[in-house]
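Dear colleagues,

I hope this message finds you well. In preparation for our joint manuscript, I am sending the Branched-subunit amino acid transport protein (Phyllobacterium ifriqiyense) sequence together with its predicted structure, so that both groups work from identical material. I would be grateful if you could confirm receipt.
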Amino acid sequence: MTWQSYSDWWWPYVFILLAGAFPTYIWRFIGVFIGGRVSEDSEALTVVRAVATSLVAGVIAQLILYPSGALAESSVYLRVGAALAGFLAYLYLGRRVIIGVVVGEAILIAGLLL
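The corresponding structure tokens are as follows:
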């Protein structure tokens, strides 16, 4: 069985739906089903938050240290500096994520244009 064995135009879309969306929706359903019963102070939810935070930190570290595409053309100092400036802006300007993201992106874009 190969991709060429199915000549219908809609087959790739069905595959994407089944292989991509369906497993995601299962976990979302489980989260909604169980989420209402879990206390916000429980150890299970603390572990889930820690894992989610570490995954986000890992993705950010990979983007900074091992970028691809247009980001790879920038220097590591610019990427680290933009991330640091965004984090400091987040801390000192009201702990709002959008402010940290905008400041970090502005510095990165300014550095790439210069």
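For the figure legend, we might mention the following. Residues 1-37 form one domain. DSSP finds four helices and no strands in the chain.

With kind regards,
E.M.
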